[in-house]
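From the pipeline queue, job 12 of 40. The input is one protein chain; the requested action is below.

Action: predict structure.
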Amino acid sequence: MLDSRAEGSLFIHKAISLQNDSKENARKLREKAKRKRLSNPSSPEEQLIKEKSKFLSKSKLKSNSWIHNNLTELKKDNKSLIMPERFANVSLYAELWKLGHKDSSIDSLMRCGVPYRHIIKQVGDERLVYPVKHKCNNRTCLSCAVVRKNRLKKKYLPYLKSFKRTAEFDFHFLNISPKNYNSLEEGYSEINRTFHKFIRRKYFKTRFKWGIWVIEFKENWAGKPQYDRGTGNFLYYHDKRSWNIHIHLLYYGKKLDNVIRGKCLECGQNALSYDESKGGYYCKNSKCNSTKVVVKHKDSKLVREWKASSNNQDVYIFVSPDIKDKDKNLKKNLNYLLKYVSIDKSDLFNDKSRAEFIHFIHNKRLLNKFGSLKEIEHKPIEEVKKKHFTTKEGLKINYLNTPISDEEWINYFERGFE
């Protein structure tokens, strides 16, 4: 008789040999199937049927998810090979599918605003049901844009207020708008690369402490009117499609020189402006405005630095007036900056353009930072679970995680939470 230790060793030895035999048999079966496929290749239709049956057998395991409830199309890498009916009925979803966008991302866009769970709040003896709605976090979704902006404002504003504001170092706002680009890919990569070179120039090393910058996108199409940036007067109609991609920058540092330098022969000051309607360069002094000037540099210092970073690319740069009110205007400027993290649908010509933008910008960062602001890391927002909270009237409300009765569901719909 074998002792217990010997019996255990024998059992382990047999288990290992069986496992090795099963691996060898599986390898032989795979090789046999491969040889059969090569000798008798199936038609594309037969391959689709096989893949479809394989997918449907797997999808039964995921029947709890609403995405897979009525799903009968063939998928590969989360992308259906035949357009689902739920996408074909909406032009935006159909265009996204044609561009190769993932089905799960399109489904998320479809479900935005739909309640997917609930919170029960008890006020006294009454239990109230409030829905938690799904958020798609798409850059063109207006409801998600508000949530995203408030989240980022809550993150950055306390840090911004902690900086001391002096005559030398203060908050400033800058707009940088190069010439229009022919495509999204070209514009995004070029403006991103150029701006990184721009802020590393020697001129800015002692003038920038930190900054937050956002890339904004606007589409121009044939027939769209163009207005003057300064006066707002009509200029012309666009004759072809292009993309206006520009940067909004909020930075903490010194003032930047965005004035054309020269000399006015009448009043003697050195600040000049340029306007074609006034005949070119003229004195910036509003009491003078003489065209009898000597131009030292055709562009301002900022424009020359941009051209040096971008292989002489034409650019329009606007430096906003000082942010004087310490709290109010700083919050206003941060709000103005963060609203461009999302894009307004009116800036895009049609659903095809919107789909192109959504597909291109997926997983690309539009909000960036440099300098000491890099200390703030992007951390996932965790849902804070509270046992209770107190209203303004001092009423204590408890959260409950209990099932909802039919009467409470009726109360839920009567209150208009759809």
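Job complete. Confidence is low (pLDDT under 50) at residues 4-16, 58-74, 378-404, 408-418.
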